[in-house]
Amino acid sequence: MTVLNLKKGEEAEVVKINASGAEGTRLSALGLKIGTHVQVLSYSLFKSSVLLGFGAVRLSMRAPLAGRIEVKR
Questions:
Q1: How many CA atoms, within 13 angstroms, populate the side-chain half-sphere of residue 5?
Q2: What pLDDT is recorded for position 20?
């Protein structure tokens, strides 16, 4: 299951991040790591991007990247 499978308001724990290079480094620097509990705050029109919340961080990302973040409820 990925972040895109969650409904608005649902929370889940990150179990795997399939991003390497600059993307992986950037997500890690922002605090999005394995074990982080994330909440879907909102989706854009047609689910082309998603706004995640974790801790004091609010992070918006496009659907292709969000689809590579695996979570479990």
A1: 12
A2: 86
| pLDDT per position as a tens digit, 40-58 | 999 999 999 999 999 999 9
**What is the set of domains in the chain, with CATH numbers?**
3-72 (2.30.30.90)
Strand partners, 13: 37, 72
Query: What is the token pair recorded at 27?
Result: 């997500």
Token code pair at residue 26? 């950037």
Q: Reduce the secondary structure of the chain to three states and give it as a string.
A: CEHHHCCCCCEEEEEEECCCHHHHHHHHHCCCCCCCEEEEEEECHHHCEEEEEECCEEEEEEHHHHCCEEEEC
User: Rounded to two decimals, what is the model's pTM?
Assistant: 0.90
